[in-house]
Amino acid sequence: MHDWKKELDALVAETMAFTKSLEVEIERPRSVPKKVVEPGCLSLPDYGGSERDEIRKRVESFKAQQERFMREREEYANSLLRRIGPITKS
Fold first, then answer.
1. So which domain of life are we looking at (predicted)?
2. Which segment of 11-15, 24-28, 79-83 scores lowest on mean pLDDT?
């Protein structure tokens, strides 16, 4: 029973010796210098109204997207039910 332990120890020792013999160079990516932007060059986006109007537009867009997702899920579920309907009636 001790024979497999000796083999395992020998394998571990051999693997450790092999890994120590390898020389690996890891090249780190160089950081790109960031551009400094003058404070006067920045401009805020014009949404054509107040913040309240912008929030309302975003909420309406979100609701429309959620309704579209719900319709697509329902259509997919109905198509699956139509496909498996004949199989389950047998």
1. Bacteria
2. 24-28
